[in-house]
Amino acid sequence: MAAPMEDVKNAVFDSKTNSCRIEVTVPTGFEQVAGGEVKEKIGSGFKELRGKISFECPIESVEKVTKLRTVDNCRVVMLYQSNYEFSDDKVENMQKLRDLVASVNWPLGIQVWKRFFSFEHPIAEVPEEITSDFGEPYFPPPRQNSNPEKKSKRSKGKKWKKKRENLVDKAKDEPVEAISGSGAASQESGDKTETVTKSVCDLNNSVNVTNGSECPKTNETAQVTEGGENPNKKPRVRENPWNPLMPSFRVTCNRSGDKHNFDSMTAAANFGGAIYQYFGWNIKMTEFDMEVILAIDDHEVTVSMGLTKESLHRRDITSFGPTTLRPTVANGMLRLCSIQSGDIVCDPMCGSGSIPIQCSLGWPLSYNLAGEIGKRALDRVRDNLSFVAQQKMENKSLPVDSIRWDVCNLPLRDNSVDVFITDLPFGVRMGHKVDNWRLYPGALLEMARVVSPNTGRCCLLTEDKKCMIKTIQKMGKYWTRTKTLGINLGGLAAGVFVLARTAEGVNKGDNPSMYSARGTKGDNMDMDVGSDKGE
Length: 535
Description:
Largest sheet: 8 strands, mixed
Radius of gyration: 30 Å
Strand content: 15-25%
Mean pLDDT: 81
Order of helices and strands: EHEEEHHHHHHEHEEEHEHEHEEHEHEE
């Protein structure tokens, strides 16, 4: 773990300050890669944490932070305390968090925030009246769980939906005369109709089955629809009056550690209440102007101001598929391959086109090939290419060609590609892990034929690390593993494998089944995904 940052003492803001500390979140496992981009484009050193990095940045060039292509969210640090002591008393802990608002460097945070966003009225960097009363600690009511042993909502929803449909069908089969109460049917039929009507009304108050029977819940629903308001529902009263001259804000608490006697919601509620007492800003959970992030990591407390309202990993992609790769992950993989000007970069299983698009934007002097076997995937690639060309290239086409092909039988000449980089099927959402034992050897053998010997590189992302490692061991005469990263991809423990092409020529008689490693025993299984090989 990197050395902790120095405590930031922010009681007084110095207008001569020309730098700030920026904290950015990155895909877990790509911290070193993102730090290399910071050194290259910002010219600053960085400190690495899990899933994020921090670095010093001049305020004049702080706009470059959101241009970094390997980061997800950006924020400016306004307060950092490394030895924050929590007690065993929850009330005391919440009171200390409330009092911490006065120590935050709000002028610095607001000054940097104004470089990214705007507000129609002036925002005071310091309150007109400095108060020492931040209100009493507040504890939200706990979430109620009436029956913890009941089944999941999905199974319960299916059960009640089926029961409701059966009752509705049963009610439709009853004679119309019996339902309308005309007296032509027997008393038994009328009792049956009354029972069905009552059950349907209890299950779904929006279904009106009968013509003559009354359902109080259905009538109440109709009354709400016609009148526009439910007279039995209490009107919502805003606890804090809205001030149109003040910006709106929200507090987000990220807490880690098992030594706290409070939850994230309680900490965010108390810290946000203290900010309201201090500035008088409007509290708003959605469509807010400012986001204050309170991060509590064991005995470390960080307060920062958000510089992005949504994650940057969704940029450049408008047409998403079932397994679309994040552009931030794609950029991290591209940086691992050391793309050079004039390189031909190929993604043989491009999905929605994240990797070719990011390569063409980050390395405009390279040429990209995007291939897929499915027609729908290629349609998404073309939609995303058109969007990027219109938004960022002034309708100029990107140096990307999209082709429909099979990765195990590429229509490319030998030694014609410099870099292969792709997101392989995991066998979780798409395909099956059994199929990977045939797909991975076939793909690597075909890539070895097409890529340039000695100088060719390959970067592969997969969650099926066992299959990939054994396949690489079997194909040692064509590929050597130079680096391996363990990353967190949507909760899955995936691995990024960087391979280098050897000088061995591909034998025309080789068959992918010769390198299939499934079912073999006694092989040396090196499963250390977090280590670097050959460095």
